[in-house]
Amino acid sequence: MKNIPQFLIAAPTSGAGKTTVSRGLMALLVSMGKTVQPYKCGPDYIDTKFHTKVCGRSSVNLDTFMASEDHVRELYARYAKDADALVVEGMMGMYDGYERDKGSSAEIARLLDIPVVLVVDAKSAAYSMAPLLKGFMTFREDVQIAGIIFNKVGSARHYAMLQEVCDDLGLTCFGYLPKQKEQEQGSRYLGLDFSQTEGKEALNQLVNTLKQHVDIKLLLKRVMRPVPKRVRKGSRKTGKWNILVANNEESFSFLYKEHLDILRTLGKVRTFNPELNKPLPKNIDLIYLPGGYPEKHAERLSKAQKTLDSLRNYVEAGGKVLAECGGLIYLSQGIVYDSSPTSFGVYPLAGIFNVYISMRKVDRKLSLGYRQLEYKGQTLKGHEFHYTQYMKQEGGDLLMPPSVTKVYDARGKLTPTPVFRYKNVIASYTHLYWGEVDITALF
Questions:
Q1: How many domains does the chain have?
Q2: Looking at residue 230, what is its pLDDT?
Q3: The pLDDT of residue 35
Q4: Is residue 11 within 8 Å of 110, Cβ to Cβ?
Q5: Which of 36, 194, 212, 242 has a 20 to 30 Å separation from 363 between CA atoms?
């Protein structure tokens, strides 16, 4: 059986440099002529954009809360087809999950039986790394640490001291990244700032740094594993639907690769940009409005009246719409800002649901976490991550339609997240995962 490099990049904590190292190693492997299939632990839509840009193959999310273990294994094997290397970027700290280590990067590594390359922030530390790394080596016998890449190393002398730690522990040290401010990835209120275009020069510099300071041949030798064997699952429902997906650079950009593949089994998939003032095409069976940053482009969305009018007509005629987060915002009465050129600081939108979305500083609050709900006989799971909130009335109460179901977090606690339905339109702040559900049965 053919062996190929397979590994998961994890870290003891968030902010240690996983994304930088992941992006750099992916680019380095591509420069060596390898076809790299990238993956991302958890529900993140943003890191996957970096992966896809670097590898030229869509990055795939692996999440053991939103999907079963069998499904995650099947996803990993399915998208590995024709790849020469499989690289998984972890999330948060290696053992951080929704409940202790459930859903963590470590759980994904154990489930897929792939080794971990641990990225460790070595700033302001030397031999104190020994007990930390010893803990990661021995905490779980079924999770294998292939070796370490140290990040933010201050000097050659500093690295020599860190190598002594690895030598004493019998742990492989693949190399390091020196402390370089230009390699630190900028961020924004909802994760990494993918609106900034990273030039080839910066990526090339990162690759060259890795070539100089990381033993890539040793790393690849230590992470060789048999090509994952694909297990055929039950056939998915097929159809001849005409499906329209909102998609552009930012306002509707949070799309799972697998969701698009699922939609293509249901019929013909076309995309449209709601920021352009064009009516929707005729004879559409389903419109999918994914998440993104519509609040950053409210003026353009509000001015695209031909698009909004045709969407309203489609909805009133009984058209099916599935909207999540940014899609829900688009279907609201409008977005309220502290100030805007329009009356009361509102940019009017589709007005399908009687809710206003607030971007006012006084209302901004992070809503974050996994979500689960029962609807139409199916258990649906997903996640929520947003700062916008529903607008309150002067008395402090929320004005909105009733929720069609109750929504719970990962530990079964009731959340205030509503799910709205009007005719054949379903909308919520929750980004649903469809991998193991029949979305056609929701309508």
A1: 2
A2: 83
A3: 98
A4: no
A5: 194
Residue 105 lies in a domain: yes
Q: Helices 129-138 and 156-169 meet at what angle, rounded to 10?
A: 40
How many residues does the structure list for the chain?
443
Average pLDDT along the chain: 92
**Domain ends where: 195, 226, 257?**
226
Residue 183, pLDDT score: 57
> pLDDT-based confidence at 184, cuts 50/70/90?
low
Mark whether 166 is an active-site residue. Answer: no
The active-site residue out of 41, 55, 173, 325 is 325
- Which range of residues forms the domain containing residue 307? 241-442
SS (H, E, C) 266-325: HEEEEEECCCCCCCCCCCCCEEEECECCHHHCHHHHHHCHHHHHHHHHHHHCCCEEEEEC
To 10 degrees, what angle do helices 200-213 and 18-31 make? 90
pLDDT tens figures, 156-171: 999 999 999 999 999 9
CATH of the domain at 136: 3.40.50.300
Sign of the CA dihedral with 373 first, then 376, 380, and 385 last = negative
Determine the average pLDDT of the residues in 13-20. Answer: 94
If residue 163 lies in a helix (H) or strand (E), which one and from where to where?
helix 156-169
